Amino acid sequence: MATSKISESCVVICLLALTSVIYVNNSDAIVIDDIPRTIDICYNYYRKTSLPNMYADQTIASAKMRFLPFYPLVHTFCSSELETFLCSIFLPRYDPVTNTSQRPCRESCERVYQSCKYAIGRSRFFWPPELECSKFSNDATCYNLTNGSATNNSDKETSRRRQAISTECKPTPSTPICSLITERQTTFQNGNYFNHSSTGEAVYELSKYLNLISSLRGPDALNNVNYENCFSSLVHLLCHLHLPVCPRSPVSQSFCLDVISDNSKCFNAVKDLNTKGENFTWPPVNVNCQDAKWFINQITVFVIQRFNPFGPPAPKNIQITPQFSTRLNISFDRTGDLNTTALYRRRDTTTAYQCTTTHTLPRPGALTLEQLTPATDYEIILASLRSTSSLPGAFVGSISNTFEQCQNDTTGEEIIQGKFFWTTQDGNQWQTINCPYGELDDIDDRSTDVESTAKRFCACDIPNVCKNPYWLKPNTSTCNFKRVNDELTSTLSKVLRKLKRDKISRHNASEELVGIASIYAREFTANDVILSTIILEDIVNDTQQLNKTGSNIVKSMNNLLNTKENVLFESQRITNSSARIIRVLDQYLENILLTLSQNVSQNEENIAVYTQEYNSRDFEGAAAASVEQNTAHNLVIYDNESGVQPNQSHVSLTMPSSLFKDLDIDVNTQNQRISFAIYRKTSFFITSEKKEPNSASQANAVRRKNSFVISGSVKGQRLTNLTDPIKTTYQPLDVGRDETTACVFWNFTAGKSGLGNWSSVGCSYQGIVDDVVTCHCTHLTNFAILMDVHIDDRDETHDKVLSVISYIGCAISLFGLVLTIFTMLIFKDLRCKVPTRILLNFCFALSLTLIVFLVAAERSNTSSFAACRVAAIALHYFVLVVFVWTSIQAYSMYLAFVKVMPRYHSKFILKCCVVGWGLPAVIVIITAAIAIEEYGDENFCRVQGLPFQVGFLTPVVLILVVNSIAFVLIIRSLLTAGSKVAADKRATGLQHARRASAILVVLGLTWLFGILAIRDAKLVFQYLFCIFNSIQGLLVFIFYCVLSSETKVKYKNLLCG
Fold first, then answer.
1. pLDDT of residue 197
2. Exposed/middle/buried for 835, CB within 10 Å: 0-12, 13-18, 19+?
3. Where are the alpha helices (DSSP H) in 763-901?
4. DSSP class of 597
5. Where are the alpha helices (H) located in 629-706, listed in sequence order?
6. Where would one find coiled-coil regions in this protein (predicted)?
7. Residue 31 half-sphere exposure, CB side, CA atoms within 13 Å?
8. CA dihedral 31, 9, 377, 380 (to 10 degrees)
9. Would you say 160 and 63 are in contact if contact means Cβ atoms under 8 Å apart?
10. Rounded CA gap, 598 and 1042, in Å?
11. Strand pairing of 772-777 and 726-730?
12. Does 3 score more than 60 pLDDT?
């Protein structure tokens, strides 16, 4: 059905209904108006209103719209006074005596709110803060909903007496459904049929039948005996089960059977309603008609009043169409000629309803919800408006969602068709943008009448839900290529252009690329490398042709390795081309069609590749090596883990026989493809990052590869943390040099610029025998060895010594902290002092830091990487807590000894705890949220990189600086105070200052040593850092317990009785 926009004025009014409040001054002009008879909920209580109301509505029409968002609560029947309460808010009663509007009394507000409290909670209804009962008064000017006048003390006393003498029988709660049964009281002493906990819950559950009952009295019910009989039986049955009559007695089974039996009058009525667009369930109520406690097999008589208090039934055949990220289209069948309102809000939230309303013309059976939030589920309820009052009848609910959006993205290459900048786009929609270089100008395409635009589709996995949409490949077929003057670049551009427009086969394109690169690779520019990369990517994507094109892919890569290294690095910097070329090779080796035991092997001058399907059940290992024979390098493959002869291999990689045991596969049924690649020329693996120079001669030294690069992979598997390591051997290209050798692999996303760098994570140097280097790694990727690098210049002997010092020192330190905490806790005089409480928090924090360090500082001590990351976060947090508590100690002493008239701080320790334990938590949470990946690595469980510098080192340095200034001020004040400070206080102050300063110095020196641990002095400062850092707890015990005369006296008294 077609959809129409609703008026902006209605939307604005509904949005303001629960969110904006304007209180009117007494001096403002008051408009006195008669309440229309159609607004019977107000007209039956008073006849005149004075505007503006508290929301600044100047007319009855605008004020009446504010009722709509409250009607979901009204229809829960929670309070018979709710509508009157709303009248007194939106159309306040005019008092001719005071010439003012009367707001409801606080007592009336509290009575309404308490009655509706259960329904508010169950329906997550938003009760506006401006309607909080505390904002109303009980003075003589307020309006009492019960008797229309101000409340008085005698009324309250009468009410209390009535509550005190309540009996089992009570008047039936005022619900439109049960009010049809005359002369009725109810009892809830023994619960109801559904075991509801209260009458509030029973009434709330009863209200869910409002739409069905309204439909049985709606326009479709005229002259239909099934509707009439079903209505009578259903009303009586629902009231009997939810609000039992008092005194309690069973009713006739016939009422029950008329409602739930197949082919009964209710069955036929509900069936008829569903055929007309309703969606009522059958049976409408689950009940056992044979339950003798509630039903008897005899006729009972009851009287149902004939008037209709329910209003019109809800619209039918509701269809909600999510097509956009900020708009929902709703179509429905109206109830007669009545207008329809829609209330909506975010699903599962306690927020105010917003509203829209249809117009009579031009399309009354449609609504549009606009200005919604993308990717959001909405709760939507619709109701027909009464023809007289324009207030809603029964609601029917639905759930729908707005589409998510594809996010900003950039595609294309400057050298080809330019950069295409795609902005956020609704799911399931096209986006069209202009071509950067205009329309096609090829001689073959000039006659084609096309627009110079590019298109891209934002796709959804599920069309009508559209969660997590994604961009499809853009269509740039009508866009021109960049005009270039360089002849070689132009030639490559033409090959790519013909390939994109299917004017050349991929096999022929691969032949042309091999021919061009074999002759001109040494003259390539960065643009030529980029074009070659894109051509290779297009070729390898056609997996069905890889048996024809695969060898040319390897030959092209072999030729590209002859390009100048600085050109390859520049192309890598611009478009990540080197990494993309290597991925092309991986894609080729993984996707070329092979049968079991069949292999593909190709040996070129600069590169050699091999791939084969292996039976994982019979796998005994696999290895590849580059062996020099007759001045030529050959690729040799071994089908076991012991075949490689390192002294005859320039480079080798061996996969253990246990390889597939670490994989989550069924070794009995699944074959696995293993691939090897050897790069004898390593120009694809270039880094510009320099080593920290040890001397002036090394100031410009860069990290340098000292071997071929070899890689291994298993298709579809990311191998890490292998039980048995991958073994690689290398014959160094430069033998006899004394620089440090590092076993490394190429990380494509590492480095300061994210362009790739060598990393030693997961790889270990095993030694060198007969000029052959052996390395072990726990994962598969591209491996090599480096020389003259800063990456792994640690000495293994010193590492072990430092580790022993750390663990022994930390154990001693923890013992000292435990003794300190014990000492402070057993002496009441000590633990009640503010400095002691601060010290205790400091000791607890330092103890937790040491425990985490001892248990999980090294990656090998944790069960998983996730546990290592948790340990890293905990270590970050507790160390920051330690430093913050030193700062609190400094502040406390500053207040005590520097301030001339120190102020009293209530709950001082509590506030200190909030800062001491809370501020570090904020820093850690922000750091982890931004860069969680920087917590922990393959070796250590700690924060690293930029987050270490910003989220850890910076606050620590700031605290140390502030503490140093504070302690200088404290010492100065104590030394120069003279008679202003008593001698005993000055002595105590100096004692505290010396202790705290000692701790500060220890902590400050510790981290200063860590920062200075670089270059030639690195080893010395590492030892100093390790020693002082690991005995902090012991020093605390010495300063605050062993050297403290007060503590020694207390111990002496304790031990000597």
1. 86
2. middle
3. 796-826, 828-831, 834-856, 865-897
4. T
5. none
6. none
7. 13
8. 70
9. no
10. 77
11. antiparallel
12. no
DSSP 715-756: TT----S-SSPEEEEE--SSTT--SPEEEEEEETT-STTSS-
Among 788, 780, 772, 677, CA closest to 739 = 788
Q: Which residue has the tokens 């025998």?
A: 769
User: Has residue 463 got a pLDDT over 60?
Assistant: yes
pLDDT per residue over 899-927, tens digit each?
A: 644 555 667 888 899 999 999 999 999 99
Contact 622, 614 (CB under 8 A): yes
Q: What is the mean predicted confidence (pLDDT) over 644-653?
A: 89
Give the span between the Cα atoms of 985 and 979, in whole angstroms.
11
Distance CA 664, CA 721 (A): 13
In order of 568, 722, 731, 760, the CA distances from 783 in angstroms are 20, 16, 13, 10
The model's pLDDT over 990-1018, given as tens digits with 9 standing for 90+, comes to 565 565 555 554 455 555 565 555 445 55
Quick check: 960 and 1002 in contact, CB under 8 A?
Answer: no
Residue scoring higher pLDDT (761 or 260): 260
Strands 251-252 and 295-296: parallel
The whole-number pLDDT of residue 703 equals 46
| DSSP-based three-state secondary structure for 698 | helix
Q: What are the DSSP calls for 402-467, one per residue?
A: PPPEEPPEEE--TTTT--EEEPPEETTEEEEEE-TT-B---TTTTT----SEEEEEEE-SSTTT--
> 3-class DSSP state for residue 342?
strand
975-984: list long-range contacts, CB under 8 Å, 24+ apart: 977/897, 980/900, 981/897
Q: Give strand pairing partners of 50.
A: 32
Counting Cα atoms < 13 Å in the Cβ hemisphere of 506 gives 19
Q: Is 367 helix (H, G, I), strand (E, B) or coil?
A: strand
Q: The tokens 């298109």 sit on which residue?
A: 455
295: its two tokens: 């039903």
Q: Which two tokens stand for residue 266?
A: 């209710």
Residue-level pLDDT at 550: 93
Q: Looking at the domain that runs over 485-593, which CATH code has it been given? A: 1.25.40.610
1021's tokens: 């400062």
Q: Quote the CA–CA distance of 651 and 677 in Å, as a whole number.
A: 11
Domain covering 170-275 in this structure, CATH number: 1.10.2000
Judged by average pLDDT, the poorest of 25-29, 465-469, 533-537, 952-956 is 25-29
The domain 598-687+702-788 having CATH identifier 1.10.10.10: the answer here is: no
Neighbours of 551 (CB within 10 A): 17
Longest dimension (CA), the chain: 119
- ∠ CA 486-490-496 to the nearest 5 degrees? 150
Q: Which residue has the tokens 């090596």?
A: 625
Assigned token pair, 48: 């005149």
Structure tokens at 715: 């298709």
Contact 889, 838 (CB under 8 A): yes
**Domain ranges for the chain:** 31-143, 170-275, 318-399, 485-593, 598-687+702-788, 806-1054
Name the residue with tokens 């200005």: 371
> From CA 64, how far away is CA 69, in angstroms rounded?
11
Four-residue CA torsion sign, 264, 266, 268, 274? negative
Pick the CATH number of 31-143 from 1.10.468.10, 1.10.2000.10, 3.90.1150.200, 2.30.30.100: 1.10.2000.10
Specify whether the CB–CB gap between 657 and 667 falls below 8 A: no
- Identical fold between 318-399 and 806-1054: no
- Of 175, 60, 73, the C-alpha closest to 128 is 73
Architecture of domain 318-399: Sandwich (2.60)
Q: Does domain 806-1054 have CATH number 1.20.1070.10?
A: yes
Q: Write the DSSP symbol of residue 622.
A: E
Instruction: Identify any residues that bridge with 384 across adjacent strands, giving them in sequence order.
Output: 340
Per-residue pLDDT band for 542 (boundaries 50, 70, 90) equals: very high
pLDDT at 888: 87
Q: Count Cα neighbours of 235 within 13 Å in the Cβ-side half-sphere.
A: 28
- DSSP element (H, E) containing 498: helix 487-500
